[in-house]
Every structure is written in structure tokens, then in C-alpha cells.
Amino acid sequence: MRTIRIVAAIAILAALPLAANARHKPAPRAPSSDAKVYAVSRMYTTLSFTVTKWMVFKEEGLFQDFSGTLTYSAEDPAKCKIDVTVQSVSLDTRVAGRDRVLRSDDFFDVEKYPTLSFRSTSIVATGKQTYDVEGDLTIHGVTKRITVPVKMIGVRVMPGIGDFAGFETTFNIDRRDFGVLGSRWSGNTVAIDPTVVIHLIIGGVHE
Fold this sequence. Notes:
The chain is α+β, with helices and mostly antiparallel strands. The chain contains three helices and eleven strands, in the order αββββββαββββαβ.
């Protein structure tokens, strides 16, 4: 009987540290909703547009010089935002003569309006990796509130390489809404369709 009591006492003493650990074990931390800021990278970002010419050809251009930031929170889309400024003179269609026409006051008028920009005002999740981004788009000195669908390509930390985020969107605008008429060169809409397809691949790097 004495032996049984001794064994029971030892078992109780052995269990005490386990009970103490259970009481003091920290609760699991909830997923972080902290927003992370990424610099928009020229290396991983493409800002392109496509227009239809003469109802026959698709002509594409892009902008080479831009800067901005994007803020991303996986848990709280309300904390997400993007702000990008583009130098309009950096327009590049791979044809020097066409670039001069598009930079002139008949189209972008880059001397008078040296920048284009987009600044988000709200972001709402529409799916697991999709969002509706509302914001102010400024072209040719005209600002319009638009909403565009955005898909997340991915967010990943690459050990020894960097911390990255990628997003993509395609949407249409009517260039006439922004005063980009091309009246002298193209007869307004005869040569160049007023609908412009915007395709943006945004690559962010957290520094």
C-alpha cells in the first residue's frame, strides 16, 4: 500500500510542470493584418496600352519612366492602396515619328502635362485573389474616378533575393474623356479608335 502511495505521489509531481506549461503557453497569434509597403519596380512593372488604327491594326505603346508605391495587406483590403506617377515623355511605341506625334499637343501634350497618375481611393476584395480598385486616373490634366478589376499574381518572400508582390489589370478607357483627341493628325476617331486598352503589370519590391 505504501508503495502505491509513493508511485502516485511521484506521478502527481511529474505532472505538475506539464500543467504549469499548459497554463502559461501563449495563445496562438492571429494572422497579421499589418500592411506592407512595396516600391513599384521598373524591372518588374509594365505599363502598356493598345489602340486600333484604321480599323485594321493594333498598335501598342508603353511608358518607361514611372515611380510609385503599393501597400498590401492580405487580411484587410481596406489597408491596401496604390499610388503611381508616370512621366508622359517616356512614352515609347518603338517608332520615333509616332512617338513625336503622340507627345505633341495633338495627343498627350507632354510639355504642358508632364505626368500621368493613378491614386486609389478604395479597394474591395471580390474573390480570393481579385479586387476592385477605385481611384483617380489623371491623363492630359483631366482626372476621372474609375474602378478597375485587379488580380493578384502573387506575394512572396524569396530568401536571399527579396520580398515581392505582383498584380495585373486590364481595362478600357475612352481617350476623348481625357481630352486626348488627335484632331489634327487622325481626324479625331477616323484613324485611331477612341477606345484604349490599358494593360498594367505592377511589380512591387519591399525594401
